[in-house]
Write a structure and sequence with these properties.
Helix content is about 30%, strand content about 20%. It has helices spanning about 30-40, 55-65, 80-90, 100-110, 135-145, 170-180, 190-200, 215-225; strands at about 15, 25, 25-30, 45-50, 75-80, 95-100, 115, 120-125, 150, 155-160, 165, 185, 210, 230, 250-255. A six-stranded parallel β-sheet has the order 5-4-1-13-14-15. Strands 7-6-8-9-12 form a five-stranded parallel β-sheet, with helices on both faces.
């Protein structure tokens, strides 16, 4: 099953989603290790992207290594890093009240942000496994007093071995209902995340490919960022679902193993 768009220049840089493309439930998918090795062997600039804001790049690199995938820290780009990069450009040296874990707080510290619960410039909501009613209440009150509302990503649920877990988008919806304030989501499907990733590796849209497993996040954001796109059918979007979307990826392939020869 293949969809072909207009001719593009050869790909020099690659962006790839992580879950559903390279790994599934903490197991490497067939072809993932070979794909990463091919990128390195060919000297391609690349980033592995994830909307998960819980982990630092070091944490993620270690988790991937346990699956047999070797990705250096500097080749990982999270919604937390994209959020910190966005805030750095919007208000350098600002302050934030943060609901999130080390991936988010570390990213914000590294761009010079101060964490505070007293008159912050922003309330920044990320993913965490320990959402606190007290913290959410504090966020609602700070937004009511004028703090601007930012969230790392709009995903309403996240995976776990026991089933779906409420994620950033669900908690953001609760805060919005209480305050009337809509957050600005930095992560996918906002193409902002891809643009900041391309800036990180000095990539140009016309020679960059995005690989993802979801039409409603990876592919649409890739198209809006001006990238060539590849949908792999090893994750969220099934082959039968592709036709119902009003946009098309550049290619639809069964898995990352089918991408190796394109590098």
């Amino acid at each position: 099953m293949t969809a072909v768009t207009t001719e593009r220049v050869p790909a020099e840089c690659w962006l790839t989603d992580m879950d559903g493309v390279l790994v599934h439930e903490e197991q490497a998918l067939p072809g993932a290790a070979e794909f990463l090795e091919r990128l390195v062997d060919r000297g391609r600039r690349f980033l592995v992207l994830t909307n998960n804001s819980i982990f630092t790049p070091r944490d993620l690199a270690a988790r991937l290594a346990r699956t047999g995938l070797h990705v250096p820290e500097e080749s990982l780009w999270t919604s937390a890093l994209a959020t910190a990069d966005f805030l750095r450009t919007q208000l350098p040296g600002g302050s934030a009240y943060v609901i999130g874990e080390a991936g988010l707080t570390t990213a914000l510290h590294e761009v010079g942000y101060v964490m505070t619960d007293t008159d912050p410039d922003y309330v920044v909501l990320g993913e965490t496994r320990t959402y606190s009613f007290e913290a959410i209440t504090r966020a609602i009150r700070l937004i009511g007093r004028g703090a601007r509302f930012i969230a790392t990503n709009p995903d309403v649920t996240g995976p776990s071995p026991e089933g779906p877990l409420p994620a950033t988008g669900s908690v953001a919806a609760m805060i919005t209902r209480a305050t009337g304030a809509e957050p600005y989501f930095v992560g996918k499907p906002n193409p902002m995340m891809f643009r900041s990733a391309m800036n990180r590796i000095e990539a140009h849209s016309e020679s960059t490919v995005m690989i993802g497993d979801r039409m409603d996040t990876d592919v649409v954001a890739g198209i809006e960022a001006g990238l060539d796109t590849i949908l792999v059918l090893s994750g969220s979007t099934a082959a039968a679902d592709v036709a119902r979307f009003p946009f098309r990826p550049g290619r639809v392939l069964d898995s990352i193993a089918d991408v190796i020869d394109l590098v």
